[in-house]
Amino acid sequence: MEFDTVIIGAGAAGMMAAAHLDGRTLLVDHAKSAGEKIRISGGGRCNFTNMHTDPKAFICANPHFAKSALARYTQWDFVALVEAHGIAWHEKTLGQLFCDNSAKDIIAMLHKLMQARDVDLRLQSSVSGIRATDAGYSFTLATPEKTHKVTTRRMVIATGGKSIPKMGATGFAYDIAQQFGIPVTATRPALVPFTFADGRFAEISGVAVPARMHADGPVFEEALLFTHRGLSGPAVLQASSYWVEGAPVFLDILPSGMYEALRQQRQIGGRKNMTTELARHLPARLVEHLAGVFDLTGNLADWSDKRLDALMQGLQHWELLPNGTEGYRTAEVTLGGIDTDALNSRSMACKAQPDLYFIGEAMDVTGWLGGYNFQWAWSSAMAAAADI
Ligand code: FDA
């Protein structure tokens, strides 16, 4: 079998690239269906992009790398594509755009575009023995029916990262990079819940509060959820992408207006227990837990300014030391990947091997939570497609 382009990985990036390529294209995936992560994303409604997409919302060893692709295929380009296919959407929060109906609409759109280009999609298929030849690449393709010898002029690796192995995630892209001498930066789970060895939040698991959280990066102001194993929720997942093992994380759960309200309450009497007063502003179960962390004894009326200020400071700068994360089992993405120094930022082609491309999550480009990672899949795929 002869192709102009072979794409390995029929996820968001691979399908998007295949949907925009001329010539004979083969798209291979070992999964039963294409776009499985799209299907389950955004609670089944796919948070397909973010209105505020900006290179600053992406983590990469080279902070300039993503600029070109994001500028050339923007969030609005993808919104226009979605609208052209009659897919209704809405903003949920913080610029996050979701399908009104179902994530399956995005998958169907990509299939339709691929069909229009006659893309040869092979599912439940695997690729082995990739070799560079004078004319491009050759390899063995094992489909459920038979084994083929395939030759192609170009290869696009779109096999994503290592997150959620149960869904078919593999380190295939990194293995190919290694085979062709392309550097890979250290990889680790990101957008992932934190765990604590002592299960200290087990008794308040299920409690959620608005919070501000950071590790070694920006402060994220979103919801935080206490779990049996530790901390989860959007603020936590965001901070996890900037966390280094062994380092603390910083939590601010002070509700806005609480400090002023407590001072006022103290002035007009405040003969109630401090925990009762706090429970007017924070979930009662959380206050119970906090009583084991901070000294909350006594009536509000008896609290000095100094003591009250110290508690407010404590709630604003709550330092915690996670013992780890839930790992690739639940991580939404993989941080790190194909070193962007080895890639051309306009085309995603390898500088040393211009007919080999890496796109999507396999690369060392990781977006924040909120539609940024799909936008990177679309933008990087379009950069490669434009070059091909
Ligand atoms: P992706 O992982 O989508 O595709 C890779 C494909 O390669 C898969 O189909 C896989 O089967 C295939 N493959 C892997 N190894 C192979 C091999 N050896 N041989 C053949 N095929 C192979 N992002 C976002 O922006 N908004 C959101 O709402 C969400 N929600 C979300 C929920 C959950 C639960 C997860 C796990 C992730 C998200 N994400 C997200 C992240 C987003 O799904 C992710 O960044 C993109 O899917 C990455 O697209 P790629 O095409 O690069 O990889």
UniProtKB/TrEMBL annotation:
SUPFAM superfamilies: FAD/NAD(P)-binding domain, HI0933 insert domain-like
Presence of the UniProt keyword Transcription regulation in the record: no
Domain of life: Bacteria
Domain RsdA/BaiN/AoA(So)-like insert residue range list: 188-333
Cofactor(s) required for function per UniProt: FAD
Pfam families found in the cross-reference section: HI0933_like, HI0933_like_1st
Cross-referenced InterPro entries: BaiN-like, BaiN-like_dom_sf, FAD/NAD-bd_sf, RsdA/BaiN/AoA(So)-like_dom, RsdA/BaiN/AoA(So)_Rossmann
Record keywords: FAD, Flavoprotein
Keyword Protein transport: no
Gene3D superfamilies xref list: FAD/NAD(P)-binding domain, HI0933 insert domain-like, Translation factors
Ranges of residues in domain RsdA/BaiN/AoA(So)-like Rossmann fold-like: 4-386
PANTHER family (alphabetical): OS12G0638800 PROTEIN (PTHR42887)
Family annotation (NCBIfam families): aminoacetone oxidase family FAD-binding enzyme
Stated name of the protein: Flavoprotein, HI0933 family
Organism name: Sulfitobacter undariae
